[in-house]
Amino acid sequence: MLVKFCVGALCPACHNPDVALVIDLGRMGYEACWDLQKRVHVARVAERVPDTLLFVEHDPVLTHGASFDPANLLLTPEQYREKGIDVIRTDRGGDVTFHGPKQLVIYPIFNVGNDLHKWLRGLEETMIHVLSKLGIEGYRFPPHTGVWVNNRKVAAIGIRVSRWVSMHGIALNCDNDLTPFSLIIPCGIQGYGVTSLTKETGGDVTIQDAMPHVVSSFTDVFGVEFSTVDREELLGKTA
User: Fold this and answer.
1) Tell me, what CATH number does 211's domain have?
2) DSSP state of 111
3) Range of the domain at 172
4) I need a surface site. Which of 109, 122, 130, 190 has the fewest CB within 10 A?
5) 119 in a domain, yes or no?
6) Residue 17: predicted pLDDT
7) How many domains does one find in the chain?
8) Would you say residue 14 has pLDDT above 60?
């Protein structure tokens, strides 16, 4: 069953928001993108920009958040770096996950009101909609956050909310190499694997294929409309 969520400022019935912005940042290092997120977050809190959805493809990196257990890194940081994978501690929730080429990372810098649980469930619902549009049956797997297919995680979610505005977000495996996930215990969850849109459909599903479905699924779930901007326009709006 497809459900529409009301999350404070995102709900047209409760508030008439400006059209949200969406931007494809392309390939970008994790820390540079994190700095950009912070910049957009400050502007969103100050209401200088509307809700903003960032799409990005990261260089290989392991990130870990507030629930991190070092035992979930199966190598040393030096060994990961020898393999070309950075290791970065972040301020999001959750444990360790991998970001890399051909994986779509989605950062909604949104005013989400005061119900964090509802926001997380809404993000999961959005990914379930994306999968449905591709003919895949996705589902939740409580108590774990994220979206799953056939006992394998396809979308990992980790966020931080400050002054009612969310940062960080979703990593959706598209046609990326899943091998690096074998070097960690993804999200600290033992006994379950990861999968991708390409693996589940049996055909190539690229970042570019997935992005329109993500935009339309945010509209489905939260009732928000989007206007596309480029990086320079975004930087101008957040100056």
Assistant:
1) 3.30.930.10
2) B
3) 21-221
4) 190
5) yes
6) 52
7) 1
8) no
> Would you tell me how many other CB atoms lie within 10 Å of the CB of residue 239?
8
Whether residue 9 has pLDDT greater than 70: no
pTM for the model = 0.91
Question: What are the C-alpha distances in Å from 29 to residues 20, 54, 85, 206?
Answer: 24, 14, 11, 19
Written as one letter, the residue type at 127 is M
Q: Are strands 165-173 and 152-162 parallel, antiparallel or unpaired?
A: antiparallel
Chain segment 80-135, per-residue pLDDT in tens? 999 999 999 999 988 899 999 999 999 999 999 888 999 999 999 999 999 999 99
CA distances from 115 to 5, 164, 217 (A): 12, 9, 20
Cα 98 to chain center, whole Å? 12
In a domain, 4, yes or no: no
- Is 125 a domain residue? yes
Catalytic residues: 187
How far is the C-alpha of 46 from the C-alpha of 129, rounded, in Å? 31
Could you tell me if residue 16 is inside a domain?
no
Could you report the per-residue pLDDT of 166-215, keeping only the tens digit for each?
999 999 999 999 999 999 998 888 888 999 999 999 999 999 999 999 99
